[in-house]
Amino acid sequence: MQPHGQVQPPSRRIRPRRLTAAGTVAVLTLALSTSAGTGRLAPGTSTAGPGPAALSRTSAHGPCMISGGSEIQMSEGVPTSSGYARSTGTVRALTLMIDFSDAPGEGKALDRYAEFFPKTEEWFRTSSYGRLDYRPETPIRDWLRMPKSFAEYGIERGAPFEPGYRKLVQDLVAAADPKVDFRSYDLVNVLVTPNAGPSALDTVLSVTFAGNQEAPVADGVPVANASFVYSRQDDGSGSYDETGYRVLPHENGHVFGLPDLYTQEGGGAVGHWDIMSEDWGANNDLLGWHKWKLGWLDRTQVHCASAPGTTEYTLTPLARKGGDKLVVLPLSGTSGYAVELRTREGNDETVCRPGVLIYKVDADVDTGMGPVRVYDSERDSGGCTRSPNVHAELSDATFTEGETFKDPRKGVTIKVTGKDGTGDVGIRVTRK
Ligand SMILES: [Zn+2]
């Protein structure tokens, strides 16, 4: 048997620490440990269920369907490689609440569940324009006690699947199996009692093992896509009840094949423009690129600007259903620019400078290493947001009417030409 490992995104490692100095905007302090996964998705593996949704794509989109090398664990490439949970239609999320003898569940297990639902399925419904019908299910409504103590599993930040998580998943399957048919679900959420392990302010343990065909088998199917959520992401700002759930859509993003966009430098590459970049604090949406990757945009909503010449496009706000959402300018077989319109609506509650967001996507850069970089139209401005736990500098990164993005080396110019009464924005793309 070929030794091949699981896709393991680097552990989540954003650690916010509120500054105590009066009047200071809280900043993200980063706890750094790149724990690159030990393996990658083996070529040719596939799940029993359907893979990622068939993407809206035509031959006209071909040059924009960039892809990374096989050594990339989790790539921004389109289409997403097989093995992940599908991201359109009805997706059934088995949700288990677990506790341990040395960390017994406090309160009701269903109260733990209620920290994440219905907010998580609403978040997905909004972001996907109704294309992802996320159904959390709790066939076991009490705490599921694991046979070993939390300490015995050796779970810590960056812990690999072997051996601790394998043991935990095996035990979890054994404990749940009498009441659960694992074949019925597309993904698994494990909501760990929050008193197990350190505070999220110190160490974020929450992690997802995605596309993991080597996972223990339950009812004949591997537990291939599983998100584990630990202590509460409560930054003390009083917003936990509103925003604490957002770790779960982030972790589920991995289950659907999305990489981490934060890097060792934190949210400095993408800021608050995607939940895979920042999932603390105020709500945020996904990039248009991710929505395309997840199958939430029609082919008519994505334009591939690969040919030389000048073309005008009208972008509608990404948060609204319908209309043109994304213009992609491929630069090579592995990278391209993406252009979209971001406004303060839907899941994007902190947008303080509505406008055209321009970023580079590199399918050959791995999760956590900066596969997406947002261009800042207002460098060193300090940004326009005052929300805690939002990367401020990039919050005003958008280009507005009359502004132009230029990459002379690649012969690319993107000008924001105007805005109409409905909020749509025109752009003119020129390629030499
Ligand atoms: Zn992550």
Automatic annotation (TrEMBL):
Q: Where is the composition biased (Polar residues)?
A: 70-84
Q: Name one GO molecular function term.
A: metallopeptidase activity
Its name, as the record gives it, is M6 family metalloprotease domain-containing protein
Q: Which positions make up the signal peptide? A: 1-36
Query: Which InterPro entries has this protein been placed in?
Result: Peptidase_M6-like_domain
Q: Where is this region: Disordered?
A: 37-84
Sections of the chain in a coiled coil: none
Name any Gene Ontology BP term.
Answer: proteolysis
- Which keywords accompany this UniProt record? Hydrolase, Metalloprotease, Protease, Signal
Does Protease count among this protein's keywords? yes
Source organism (scientific name): Streptomyces coelicoflavus
